[in-house]
Amino acid sequence: MGAYDTEIDGLAATARAALVREIDADGAWAGDPVWREAFAAVPRHLFVPYYYVAGQRGQERRWGQSIDPEARQRWVRGAYADAPLATRLRDGELLSSSSQPSLMAQMLAALEVEEGHRVLEVGAGTGYNAALLAHRLGDDLVTTIDLEPEITESARQHLSAAGYHPVVVTGDGARGVPERAPFDRIIATCALPTVPRAWIAQCRPGARILTPLATGLLALTVRDAAHAEGRFLDTPAYFVPLRGEARAEPEGVSLAGLPDRAREQDLFRFLAALVRGTLDPREAYALWEREGEPGRDRYGVTVAGERAWAWLDDPEGPYLWPLR
Q: What is the rounded CA–CA span in Å between residue 252 and residue 57?
């Protein structure tokens, strides 16, 4: 090991310990504190050998192999900041990122994994989340999928460098990975417009699916191969859209003409995104005010065969909105 490696490893260990303390203080994994050990062990900097931050001249690339010692230190500190990191851009469009660690901790805790569970992750990204899962469950029980071959190849390299070898698949995440099914848990790290039926079909009864939807996190319990139901967590979540068959539409919803308060309220914007194409924003705002400005955890989704709908408070009504 050279002086460079010793320097990086020492900086990374100190920064990683500080990140774990920060997440611990926020209570992100209070529901499943076993995840603390995984975050303390998995070296995030190996999964982000470079990333982009906004600078005065546009996107600034931070690189772990820089010849400038101060630049390397900035790279390591940034790798362990509790912030999302842009890791892959194409013509200015964000293709892949490493999610905010505290949000990852909340999602993994909410996934409610148990020893022996078989997990599918949709959206391989850098491979960091798959490494956390593999650390907890073992390589053989973790599968991660992404559409872009360059993303899956780099994820494999990052995972191998960190000592993890889960199954990495290149393909359309909306179709799942039937050859690795049945799954006990599915977690998506990309935004979707609805719940792919293939995921439900590839789950065991009683399985749990956690997926971003309409700037929220939806937790579904699978009843059988065609039915699932659950509520949103109260946590906001913004993810890169899934690329492929069930590609998510842009999150933007026109709120022109509504009061300033509507445009500023995150909880209302969540409702507007959830019912876009079904309910006019003015009607959505009137409903939101009438029902006491409900938070995300009062909404849910039901999937029954080819039908899927979002609801407020009760899956049987009176407030129901079809999903694609």
A: 26
- In this structure, what token pair is assigned to residue 22? 């920060």
Structure confidence at residue 4 (pLDDT): 54
**Angstrom distance (rounded) from CA 39 to CA 104:** 10
Q: Which of 166, 135, 127 is nearest to 48 (CA)?
A: 127
Task: Look at the pTM and tell me if it is higher than 0.85.
Answer: yes
Q: What is the rounded CA–CA span in Å between residue 302 and residue 31?
A: 25
Catalytic residue among 96, 98, 99, 102: 96
Whole-number pLDDT of residue 101: 96
Q: Which residues contact 81 (CB under 8 A, 6 or more apart)?
A: 19
Ranges of the chain whose pLDDT falls below 70: 1-5, 92-93, 243-253
pLDDT at 23: 96
Give the C-alpha separation, 66 to 76, whole Å: 11
Q: Is residue 96 annotated as a catalytic residue, yes or no? A: yes
Would you say 192 and 122 are in contact if contact means Cβ atoms under 8 Å apart?
A: no
